[in-house]
Amino acid sequence: MDNPLVILKQTTEHGIRPSMSKPSTPGDNACAENFFSIFKTECIYIEKPKTLDETLKLTDKFVHYYNYERIQGNGLMPYEERQTAFAKQIADI
User: Fold this and answer.
1) Residues 26 and 62 grouped into a single domain
2) DSSP 22-89
3) Which residues are CB-neighbours of 33 under 8 A, at least 6 positions away?
C-alpha cells in the first residue's frame, strides 16, 4: 500500500482534497465515503494508473460505469434510483 504522506503530498500538489469529511467522522458524508471506497477497491487498486492523464480517463470510465451499469444493493443502478426518486417527488407535488 502507498505511503499516506506521499499520497497527501501528491493530492495537495494537484489541488485535490483527499477526504470528504473531518478526521474520525466518516458519517459526515457517508455516501461520498462509500463511493470512494468502492472506487478505490473496484478501480484504482486493480488498474493502478501510472499518470494523471491515465487516472482521469480511468475515473471518467468508472463514474459512467458506476452510474449507468453497476447494480447497487437495491437492484437498481444509481441513475435508475435517482429517476425513481424524482418521479416520486413530482408525484407528491
Assistant:
1) no
2) -TT-GGGGHHHHHHHHHHIIIIIHHH---SHHHHHHHHHHHHHHHHHT---TTSS-HHHHHHHHHHHH
3) 20, 21, 26
Name the domain count of the chain. 2
pLDDT per position in the chain (93 positions), as tens? 466 777 778 888 888 876 656 667 767 778 888 899 999 999 999 999 999 999 999 999 999 999 999 998 899 999 999 999 999 989 888
Instruction: Give whole-number Cα distances, 66 to 21, 24, 41, in Å.
Output: 22, 27, 13
Q: Locate 36 and state its grid cell.
A: 470512494
